[in-house]
Amino acid sequence: MKVLVPVKRVVDYNVKIRVKADGSGVDLANVKMSMNPFDEIAVEEAVRLKENGQADEVVAVSIGPAQAQETLRTALAMGADRAILITVDGPVEPLSVAKILAGVVKDEQPELVILGKQAIDDDANQTGQMLSALLDWSQATFASKLELGSDSAKVTREVDGGLQAINISLPAIVTADLRLNEPRYASLPNIMKAKKKPLDTKTPDDFGVSVASRLRVIRVEEPAVRQAGVKVANVAELTAKLKNEAGVI
Amino acid sequence: MAILLFAEHDNIALSEQTAKALSAAAKIGGDIDILVAGKDVSTVAEASAKLSGVRTVLVAQSDALENQLAENAASLIVSLSGDYDTIVAAATANGKNILPRVAALLDVMQISEVMDVVDPDTFKRPIYAGNAVEVVQTTDATKVMTIRTSSFGATEDGSTTAPIKSIDVGAADAGKSSFIENILSQNDRPELGSAKIIVSGGRALGSEEKFKAVITPLADKLGAAVGASRAAVDAGYAPNDLQVGQTGKVVAPDLYIACGISGAIQHLAGMKDSKIIVAINTDEDAPIFQVADYGIVGDLFDVLPELEGQL
User: Fold this and answer.
1) Hey, which of A68, A136, A146, B289 would disulfide with B295, CB 3.0 to 4.6 Å?
2) For an interface test with B, which of A175, A238, A244 has the most B Cβ atoms less than 10 Å from its Cβ?
3) Whole-angstrom Cα distance, residue B17 to residue B159?
């Protein structure tokens, strides 16, 4: 079975982002970039499927600038077999990403696509579901456990208030939630090996997809800033304030 | 044209999330119909019909819709979409699962987690876990959006009741996925996402045993949910499903008590919309105090038992 894993290059989750003063966006100059954390989980899951013999090839794909090669090399160092970069400068909306990925799926014919449930930059949480709709495949979002059979899979999903187990027929789309696994750190030998693994480069035109945006970003604002409150001297003062001033207990 | 609001429910009760999403729909303006999809949903339909400002409640019932699997629910919504220019759902696990599928089938871009309606085509939504706010205008013919319900109040019941109309769902099972079971949390404690009060612990707790011994009693006393910082989760003091932050759950309770949490960016992103934040930390320069309404500089192992005693 072939598994396709789309990965996105995003601002590292430890970075405190800054909104540009002119409101045109978020300042990405000289900011540390990494693989989207949920995509790392997706790569880890795919690699584990290969390691336990359930998958025979893991293909990582990224849609982004030339530097997204680094993100793909990370996926290769974690254990993916080869990579495809679809080069696009500037932001690409989930709908366009899903359309390009649908094209990749038609070329590659995987039986399973594992994606992160959302990217931590645009927080859209759409790509997996959209890809599933475009392919008319089954979908299991927010997966915390994946048990793969020969023509179906049992997926345990994180839902409000607990977990939900569903059975999905293959081919299928699975999106990874935080508890699915703990991604490995790539070892130095594997990082070296990853440099020699194949990486193809394509463009959205190869798939006949326009990346024109449907949503116009009018501006990007700072969120409302919380004012620091007061320090209280003791617990009695705290409980009094919570009861009388804040009225929350 | 009109707005279709996809109801959040468990076939028995209508979730308050729907009443909140309805407030956002009302702000967009237009006739609002609520779609209740499920099985044996009469109580849900009746509760929906009471909400103020609803034109019609549409009820779609079948075995295939009982568990609101994405493939079936999305097909149903798409089949109704011709009568609506806006399709809305609360940004719950269900809404987030189903609506992007609807958007792709309609070839439109979904607007996720709308936190404010600027005008009927322009919306504010959080990006970078709420560290920035994007103002976006849609150019699509049909607007598909999920609503961040912590940003909107719940619509009250009105003085009139909307008519309830059954709709024919035809052969609704796409046969792509099937429901096995729900494994819902069995404890009496409220769920993180909807709790009014959250007591959250950080790395300063020092061990799983101490986390349980100090955080749990206070949470029980307050009827609160328990949360944890990523540092506490990574150190193994608390399970991952308790994680609050950019890589965990984003919460907005009335009261958030941060115990031994320094206030890393990624944690603040998950809780800074809480109404009242209390911080307890030994380090008076900890960043958590910059967002806290009330702070106590002190050892949580002294403060928490005392706080519990005084409640």
Assistant:
1) B289
2) A238
3) 21
